[in-house]
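Supplementary Methods. Inverse-folding protocol.

Structures were first reduced to a discrete structure-token string of length 504. This string, shown here, constituted the complete conditioning input.
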């Protein structure tokens, strides 16, 4: 067992095996991802899984995992919001695994319960919330946090979960005339930009509102929600007798890092009596940087917020955070389980986090974040954010300067420098991009070629809309130790793969 006074001694030789195998696997991989097609990786995994046994199984399987990983610590692995975790955060997470605290009751996690509460107060203050008023919880990530925000929004308006209307204080009534009571029969609607994360639709479905309750709001070419379009959609809801339950503003869209106009969203939410949820799963990291934090101006007005420290925060997954501005709006999640948080325990001063989470058993994911914050400080983490931002700006400029690469939004008003740490671009064939369908096919296949050769892991997405010519490659730069020269080398590999595909 890993706990107790003897636990560390039991772990030590095993951890040494793991560390050795991690290094061996990375050396055998020799790049961002193991070369080969999926069938080759599957065969190698099946072979080791079948033959590994006994005390050497840990080392063999770890070497296999390391060899067969897409490693975000390699500068050429830059497809997704998939960060290289900080070694100190991973070491902290080892302590959590060894002790296995569970956050659903005080008697399973005395210190970890207190630490999660303190960390959330610090993060609430970082957002600009009043920590004495706010509440929150660690989550599995933006998907769960978005579900929670929309659940509380639904319950505030519909009183669904507990069967009672939740007390509304200081919240303006809807513009529909007659307020929430009169609107109880109206169809609930969620307004989110066309570039919002797909988990918003999924949450709406899970909450019984239906995917089609999410009304897409138009975005500009950088995928930023248009405030005028949001106002028009809200007005249309009211005219149709629908109830705008929530506005979801994205602070850092997954593809371009675009930040919706948060202050205007907050004003419109107040005007129409809607809940404002800000999905800052990606952009929340900007709060760590003095230079970038002003981009999130207005986030402090949100009713709830999603943050993911396993993105722009260098934590091993999962490190999601959900926060609400006013703790009383959390009411509909409250639960009493006599074996976890009996009232007499709470009265005697034993706090419980049970009623803050959708989950019961819950890892102490706050611990690694707390250790990281204390080790590097906000300033230290802010420097990492700034380094990734600068890398993205340099990378985007290198794309713009390359004759065979086209930066998305190049030459448009408002500039084409990345907002955060990601940008979209594409390879342009010899004769130009006029044949959109061929350009799409080339870009899609050059990315698979890079994966197959084990040379680079580059993102692939599509611009919103219909028809050919929308496929784009994406770099999401989350490795603060990567250099501009390494990003330029990665772009060179993209061009070489494009040329090879054209000749194929
Ligand atoms: C990543 C992301 C999510 C989903 O978060 P998970 O942690 O993967 O569950 C939601 N919204 C945005 C904007 C994201 O970038």
């Amino acid at each position: 067992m890993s706990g107790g006074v003897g636990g560390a001694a039991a772990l030590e030789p095993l951890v040494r095996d793991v560390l050795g195998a991690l290094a061996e696997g990375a050396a055998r991989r020799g790049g961002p991802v193991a070369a080969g097609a999926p069938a080759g990786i599957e065969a190698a995994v099946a072979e080791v899984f079948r033959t590994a046994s006994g005390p050497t199984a840990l080392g063999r399987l770890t070497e296999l995992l390391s060899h067969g990983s897409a490693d975000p610590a390699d500068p050429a692995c830059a497809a997704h919001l998939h960060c290289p975790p900080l070694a100190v955060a991973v070491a902290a997470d080892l302590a959590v695994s060894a002790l296995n605290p569970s956050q659903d009751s005080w008697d399973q996690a005395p210190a970890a319960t207190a630490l999660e509460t303190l960390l959330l107060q610090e993060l609430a203050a970082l957002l600009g919330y009043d920590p004495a008023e706010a509440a929150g919880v660690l989550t599995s990530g933006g998907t769960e946090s978005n579900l929670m925000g929309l659940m509380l929004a639904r319950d505030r308006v519909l009183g669904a979960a507990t069967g009672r209307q939740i007390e509304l204080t200081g919240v303006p009534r809807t513009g529909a005339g007659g307020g929430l009571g009169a609107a109880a029969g109206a169809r609930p609607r969620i307004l989110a930009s066309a570039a919002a994360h797909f988990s918003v639709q999924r949450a709406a479905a899970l909450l019984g509102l239906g995917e089609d309750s999410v009304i897409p709001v138009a975005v500009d070419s950088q995928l930023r929600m248009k405030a005028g379009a949001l106002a028009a959609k809200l007005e249309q809801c009211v005219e149709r007798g629908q109830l705008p339950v929530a506005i979801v503003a994205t602070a850092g869209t997954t593809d371009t890092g675009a930040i919706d106009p948060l202050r205007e969203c907050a004003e419109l939410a107040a005007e129409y009596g809607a809940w404002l949820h800000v999905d800052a799963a990606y952009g929340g990291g900007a709060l760590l940087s003095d230079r970038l934090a002003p981009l999130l101006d207005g986030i402090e007005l949100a009713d709830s917020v999603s943050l993911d420290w396993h993105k722009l925060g260098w934590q091993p997954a999962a490190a999601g955070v959900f926060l609400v501005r006013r703790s009383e709006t959390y009411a509909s999640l409250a639960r009493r389980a006599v074996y976890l948080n009996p009232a007499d325990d709470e009265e005697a001063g034993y706090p419980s986090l049970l009623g803050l989470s959708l989950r019961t058993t819950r890892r102490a994911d706050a611990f690694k974040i707390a250790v990281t914050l204390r080790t590097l400080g906000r300033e230290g983490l802010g420097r990492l954010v700034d380094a990734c931002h600068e890398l993205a700006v340099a990378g985007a400029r290198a794309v713009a300067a390359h004759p065979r690469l086209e930066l998305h939004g190049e030459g448009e008003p408002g500039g084409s420098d990345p907002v955060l740490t990601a940008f979209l671009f594409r390879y342009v064939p010899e004769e130009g991009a006029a044949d959109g369908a061929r350009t799409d096919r080339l870009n899609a296949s050059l990315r698979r070629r890079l994966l197959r050769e084990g040379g680079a892991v580059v993102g692939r997405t599509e611009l919103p809309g219909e028809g050919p010519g929308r496929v784009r490659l994406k770099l999401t730069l989350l490795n603060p130790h990567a250099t501009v020269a390494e990003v330029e080398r990665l772009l060179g590999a993209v061009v070489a793969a494009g040329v090879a595909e054209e000749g194929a």
